[in-house]
Amino acid sequence: MTRILTVMVATAGLVVFGAQNWDNVPVHLIFGPPTRVRLVFLILISAGIGYVTALLRRMRHEVKMRAEIRQLRKKLKEIDEAQRAATAVELEDGSFEDAPRLRAEDA
Question: In a structure prediction context, what are the per-residue pLDDT tens digits for the chain, which is 107 residues long?
């Protein structure tokens, strides 16, 4: 119910916004004569471009963070394996097992 009410209020707000900004405004492009565009469309297109730009930047940041997480997990695995190898104890049959870890109370 709350979602429907939110959509209705947002739609009403967009309708009022569009009605108040329905005027034609000149848009000067890089070349050629100025083009006349409805202000509401100009504002919505600008907001859409800004949203897409922010979305792409966020996606780029997430990709970098995932790569860093992968790299850190790989390092952690290497450190863990090195630590296990350093604490391994050779048994009489020639196999290895992890040495029991000392607790703070035992030291």
Answer: 899 999 999 999 999 999 999 999 999 999 899 999 999 999 999 999 999 999 999 999 999 999 999 999 999 999 988 888 777 666 666 666 665 655 555 55
CA pair distance 81, 71, nearest whole angstrom: 15
Give 101's contacts (C-beta < 8 A, 6+ positions apart).
87
Containing 106, the helix (H) or strand (E) segment is: none
Whole-angstrom Cα Rg for the chain: 31
**Paired residues of 26 in beta bridges:** 36
Residue 65, Cα to own-chain centre: how many angstroms? 9
Token pair in block for residue 43: 């504002």
pTM, 2 dp: 0.66
Residue spans of the domains in the chain: they are 2-87
